[in-house]
């Protein structure tokens, strides 16, 4: 193989690693006939116009797009003497871009399957697993020499012959359908002395043991792949892509050094997701690994998961909003195009606009880092994770309800991963919110106790005080309650009465004497030193209509508030307010969550934004200033479907609370990048944004 000398790319002589240099990514995923009609000039212009400084280019694995010499490494039958991967790699390098070579090991062609039957995944009866979508192509077994030998050969060949910064793997974990190949059976037996688990119920102890073994095995595989790259390029990496679990489905101790950055494969929103799900990728990843960059992999086509249109185009407004909401919360932009031919070019302009917004916003962000006073305690329960073999996190109405209520309330917030949280990390927040779906260990409860003792504030949602088996997990005593009976579910026609109309949590509901209740009720008794501003109205019928009226006065606690000696506050909601808010979007539930958060937060709000519409807010801070990003999500399709068009809103007033030592302040925005001096009045700076189409960034700096 003859490979021409590559041009030295920008940044290669700096100390900054490639994964921090590359902040806007173009991914080109080739298909077999691309060598016949590849438009080189078009793709050079796309990379240039989007200001991309990273490129991920299909190289090999399932199909090679370079003149590979590895046996049974299937090469595109249209490649001929062409080196398609090498050509695009050269172009990217000349543009000063960092490059990852993409490989996909999840399937092989018939010749490889015939020559190496040990590479193929098999069902419980030992039958080879044919690809579910394409005939005469076979799924590979991740516990075979295809992974341990063949892919390492491919990785070494690419790293040796080409100037790449990393090798990137897609669909590398193996299928959710477990492989019962001889290799898998033998390795599992040798490690555990047991046979592979069978059956469709994957919540059994046998399956849990296998999932743990699989996690360790795949983690060790990543280490070997990474070693293969580093032996040739010490500054390089092997980067297997990730879903929302990040390393939760791997062994974090084994792979903690294998992921210097995360590239999260969340290419679009699912049917029941809000457009703000893009930003959650950044928050969730940062909540687990605050020191590592995260990038959001977005597709130019619709990503419905149920229906497949891989070679199509999403609406322009949807593409832009998805990418922008992601990078506002520090999930750097990456777009992927399947198939180098472009029968529909409607994606080019919105991708270019979104990437340009990111480049311009970066100038305002500078060295500021994301910040907030509120955090969601991120304990991902198994039932929201889909298959235990999946890398994705499923729907969780309780978490979604908290998230959306905070967006509506314009309260900036972050995530903090429960299993990697420390006293120091929690201490950065004023308020920690615990969703009802959280599964808290003794260590989690002890951590939250220390947080409150140090003056932190806690908002706890209904069943978060119980273990899966319904027993007390130890949090109840902290927040001033005693759980007196099992959770009541499928409750109908439930209401909570306002006990103190003057209380700041109850005041927003005036003149109502009662509001909507829940459908899942945790029966509790409140401690003497608590305040109970809402109590449940005892159940009464919902039919016949003539019987729909309360018989008794309000009794059992619905909201329990406590002020602690260390200065912290706790608030407990004994019904499923957050999940109901997401499922029904009733305003009473959203208002209640908002004012509970404001009560525990007290006056610790360094930035406030007022105005009409739904806005997602991102805040970044440094010792020299604060930057506020405002994403306009005020759209009828914000919660479902695709955005059809942006609907400008305004005005929006941003009020900054500045430190006492600040005497002069300057404001810049995306639309007015020239700094304007701002008055400081009573320790605050106020700025009004006249209108927002999709994004405005307000940057306040001081001396």
TrEMBL record:
Name of a matching Pfam family: GHL6
Stretches assigned to the GLMA-like second domain: 395-462
Protein name: GLMA-like second domain-containing protein
Lineage of source species: Bacteria, Bacillati, Actinomycetota, Actinomycetes, Mycobacteriales
């Amino acid at each position: 193989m003859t490979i021409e000398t590559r041009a030295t790319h920008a940044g290669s002589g700096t100390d900054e690693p490639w994964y921090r240099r590359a902040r806007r990514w173009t991914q080109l995923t080739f298909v077999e006939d691309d060598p016949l009609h590849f438009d080189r000039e078009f793709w050079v212009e796309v990379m240039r116009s989007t200001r991309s400084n990273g490129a991920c280019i299909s190289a090999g694995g399932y199909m090679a797009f370079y003149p590979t010499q590895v046996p049974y490494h299937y090469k595109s039958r249209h490649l001929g003497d062409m080196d398609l991967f090498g050509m695009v790699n050269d172009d990217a390098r000349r543009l000063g871009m960092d490059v990852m070579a993409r490989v996909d090991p999840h399937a092989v062609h018939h010749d490889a399957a015939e020559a190496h039957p040990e590479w193929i995944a098999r069902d419980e009866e030992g039958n080879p697993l044919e690809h579910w979508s394409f005939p005469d192509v076979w799924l590979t077994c991740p516990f075979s020499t295809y992974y341990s030998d063949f892919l390492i050969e491919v990785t070494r060949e690419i790293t040796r012959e080409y100037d790449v910064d990393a090798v990137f793997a897609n669909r590398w974990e193996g299928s959710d359908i477990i492989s019962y190949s001889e290799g898998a059976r033998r390795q599992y037996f040798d490690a555990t002395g047991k046979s592979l688990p069978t059956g469709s119920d994957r919540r059994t102890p046998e399956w849990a043991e296998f999932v743990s073994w699989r996690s360790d095995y795949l983690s060790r595989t990543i280490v070997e792949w990474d070693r293969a790259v580093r032996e040739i390029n010490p500054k390089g990496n092997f980067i297997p892509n990730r879903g929302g679990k990040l390393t939760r489905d791997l062994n974090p101790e084994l792979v903690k050094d294998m992921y210097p950055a995360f590239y999260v494969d969340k290419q679009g929103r699912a049917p029941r997701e809000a457009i703000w799900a893009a930003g959650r990728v950044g928050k969730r990843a940062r909540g687990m690994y605050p020191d590592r960059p995260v990038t959001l992999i977005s597709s130019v086509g619709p990503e419905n998961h149920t229906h497949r249109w891989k070679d199509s185009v999403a609406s322009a407004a949807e593409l832009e909003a998805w990418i922008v909401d992601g990078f506002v919360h520090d999930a750097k932009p990456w777009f992927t195009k399947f198939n180098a031919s472009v029968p529909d070019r409607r994606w080019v302009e919105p991708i270019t606009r979104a990437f340009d917004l990111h480049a311009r916003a970066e100038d305002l962000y500078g060295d500021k880092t994301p910040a907030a006073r509120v955090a969601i305690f991120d304990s991902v329960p198994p039932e929201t994770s889909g298959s235990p073999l999946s890398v994705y996190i499923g729907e969780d109405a309780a978490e979604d309800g908290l998230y959306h209520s905070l967006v509506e309330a314009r309260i900036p917030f972050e995530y903090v991963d429960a299993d990697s949280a420390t006293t120091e990390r929690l201490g950065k927040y004023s308020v920690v919110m615990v969703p009802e779906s959280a599964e808290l260990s003794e260590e989690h409860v002890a951590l939250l106790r220390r947080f409150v003792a140090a003056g932190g504030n806690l908002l706890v949602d209904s069943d978060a005080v119980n273990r899966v088996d319904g027993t007390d997990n130890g949090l109840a005593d902290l927040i001033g309650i005693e759980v007196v009976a099992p959770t009541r579910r499928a409750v109908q026609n439930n209401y909570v009465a306002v006990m103190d109309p003057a209380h700041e949590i109850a005041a927003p509901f005036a003149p109502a004497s009662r509001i909507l209740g829940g459908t899942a009720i945790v029966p509790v008794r409140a401690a003497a030193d608590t305040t109970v501003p809402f109590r449940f109205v005892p159940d009464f019928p919902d039919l016949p209509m003539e019987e729909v009226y309360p018989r008794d006065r309000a009794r059992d606690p619905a909201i329990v508030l406590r002020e602690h000696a260390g200065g912290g506050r706790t608030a407990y909601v004994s019904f499923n307010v957050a999940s109901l808010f997401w499922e029904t979007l009733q305003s009473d539930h959203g208002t209640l969550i908002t004012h509970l958060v404001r009560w525990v937060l007290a006056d610790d709000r360094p930035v406030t934004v007022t105005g009409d519409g739904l806005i997602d807010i991102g805040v970044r801070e440094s010792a020299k200033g604060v930057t506020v990003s405002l994403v306009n999500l005020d759209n009828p399709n914000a919660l479902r479907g695709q955005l059809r068009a942006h609907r400008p809103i305004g005005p929006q007033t941003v009020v900054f609370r500045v430190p006492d030592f600040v005497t002069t302040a300057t404001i810049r925005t995306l639309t007015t990048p020239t700094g304007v001096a701002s008055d400081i009045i009573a320790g605050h700076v106020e700025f009004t944004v006249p209108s927002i189409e999709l994004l405005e960034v307000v940057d306040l700096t001081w001396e």
